[in-house]
Amino acid sequence: MMWRDLFNLKGGAASIPEINQRILADATVSGTNLIVLVMAIMIACVGLNMNSVAVIIGAMLISPLMGGIVAIGYGMSTYDVRFIRQSMVKLAFQVGFAILTASLYFAISPLADSTDELLARTSPTIWDVIVALCGGIAGAVGNTRREKSNVIPGVAIATALMPPLCTAGYGLASGHYSFFLGAMYLFFINAFFIALASFLVFKLLGVPSHGDVEASQFQRQRLILAALGILITAPSIYLAYQMVEENLVSMQIKSFLHEDMDFPTTSVVSYTVKDRVLTVDLVGTLLSGEEIAALQGELQARSRLQDFELVVIQGERELDREQVQNLINARLEKQGTTEKETSYKNLSAQYYPAYKRASADQQTMELLTRQGPLLFPQIISIRGGTLTTVLPKGQESTSEKKVEYNRFMVEVIVSEPLRPEEADRLQKWIGEQVRMPVLMTVQTADHPSDFYGDGIAWP
């Protein structure tokens, strides 16, 4: 007896006439409910357009769409075909009105880009089914209590009926019909399972049938509901599987980039994934063919990436600032325009030229320090770097500068003076390594001078 009372829905329930009156009032589409519907549509459209979660939640709270859907579930539980038909017509009017209003809003809105909140309403999954079913049960229970509770506002936020309709309107206005179809599927999932959950709660409460109902009608209704449930749920299960698979792939790709492509003088600028091909843009020291082949093996060692192909994009040494930024922009644009990416794009434009040149200088100096003494035994050490010149870019504002790398300055410390021909050969050899004009000074280690060039034995 105690366990039965623990889950007893009839305890605290309103009377049947009171429940019937509430359902009829909430299902009204004229007067106050129509005005509230228009306000909810506009608020949801602005929230989706501005990518504001708080504004979207406000639209969910005041939306009157829940009443019409619960009314359909109530009509099903009472086997009142006429009431079901009337409720469906009213709901269809609300849905059509919402989509039309949203389409007009997005057609005239100057902000035409798809936001994260819009995209979130285009790919429903099995989790949306679970939320709608649980929300429908909670909403029906809350709607049948003698005393009003905070259940209905919470259900309105959880099931989110208004944003999908506004997203569908955006899809029509912008020509993104995949948005329209995905958003309408999400709304249909929410509406069906809220109505189904309401039907179950009303049946458990013992709401009486309106008129005489034959046993065959019970059987037919159960079959129709079961068939619709399967048809509606199946695509969402498949979409959920796809989403889980994509998340696992994304996690393994990020793990690969973080663990296997973390180099001291080479960094990942951006990456894209398309048709099982991972394309990675790098800056800094160029990777060798053997290193790239090893990375391909590390990529395919991961369970979800076994059939992936790795493509590495490495800029040539002489890429200028504009070419490098075009490369970065092209890759980042494919990934979207989130705040983080936009910020990173700006930072890349500002700092990448200096980073690339410093990285290249480090690599060059390692080569000169390693090979120089082998070619010229007198050399003790070599140090240097690229000289930069900052010039105004055309006739534009001085805030826009163009950085040019046009000289390589190098200081060579020798144990004994070089002959002029040796100095000339050394300068040409360094020039071949850096591929730019070289300004070279040669100093002896034991007799440093304030004058450049005392390390050369001039005749």
**Quaternary form:** single chain
Biggest sheet layout: 3 strands, mixed
Low-pLDDT residue intervals, each spanning 5 or more residues: 316-321, 334-347, 395-403
Number of helices: 16
Structure summary, number of beta strands: 6
Give the overall average pLDDT: 77
Shape: elongated
- Our measurement of the CA-to-CA distance between the termini, rounded to an integer number of angstroms, reads 116 Å
Rg from C-alpha positions?
Answer: 35 Å
What is the string of SSEs from the N terminus onward? HHHHHHHHHHHHEEHEHHEEHE
Across the major sheet, the strand order is 1-2-3
DSSP strand content: 5-15%
Relative helix content = 55-70%
Sheet/helix structural class: alpha/beta
Explain what you see.
- This protein has 459 residues and is of the alpha/beta class.
- Helix content is 62%, strand content 13%.
- It contains 16 helices and six strands.
- The chain has a three-stranded mixed beta sheet with strand order 1-2-3, with helices on both faces. It has a three-stranded mixed beta sheet with strand order 4-5-6, with helices on one face.
- Helix 16 links the parallel strand 5 and strand 6.
- Helix 5 crosses helix 11, helix 8 runs antiparallel to helix 9 and helix 10 runs antiparallel to helix 11.
- About 6% of the residues have low confidence.
